[in-house]
Amino acid sequence: MTGQANSNFQLAIDNLKETLHADFIGLALVDLKKYHHDFRWRYVTGNISLRYRRIVLQSGKGVAGIVFKTGKPMNIENVDVSVMDGDLYNYPIVVFEKLRSFGAIPLFLDDHVQGVLLIGYREADRLTADKFEQFKHAVGPQFGPFHMKERLKDDFIGQ
Questions:
Q1: Is 80 left (phi over 0), alpha (psi -120 to 50) or beta?
Q2: What is the architecture, at CATH level 2, of domain 3-143?
Q3: Residue 4 has what pLDDT?
């Protein structure tokens, strides 16, 4: 990725944060230059710590890993209701950033998931179904070659 693309991604998530009044937005991308997939949170805004930098994402694990593996959006309106306390360790970004309501969408390049965009709030029930739809439709040309692929209505991970 070029420096220009880097600043554009950061600007795009900063703008999304302001538009949607989010507490946290993160963009996790796959580094295609490596032999194995290096999948990490590359760009964030609204973070309360730098601990996100230590998270190594795995396909099928955590918020980004589940969305990456399935290619389907995920929306949790209330972490306290939807995620059991014993399972929170599977969601390190949620714990580190103290998120209580969050959603994530896959970003596609061609037909392959290459990134995950996460929106989060530090209060429960802030990310309603309507606001999550608004978030999904807000992904546009500011994310360069990445796009949100339209899925069937039942292609949704909710908990």
A1: alpha
A2: 2-Layer Sandwich (3.30)
A3: 43
Angle at 103 between CA 154 and CA 97, to 5 degrees: 155
The residue ranges of every structural domain in the chain are 3-143
Give yes or no for a contact between 98 and 78, defined as CB atoms under 8 angstroms apart. no
Do β-strands 101-109 and 24-31 pair in parallel, antiparallel, or remain unpaired? unpaired
Q: Is 32 helix (H, G, I), strand (E, B) or coil?
A: coil
The pLDDT tens digits of the residues spanning 141-153 come to 667 666 666 544 4
Under DSSP, the state recorded for 83 is: S
**Reported confidence tier of residue 110, pLDDT bands at 50, 70, 90:** confident
Neighbour count for residue 48 (Cβ, 10 Å): 12
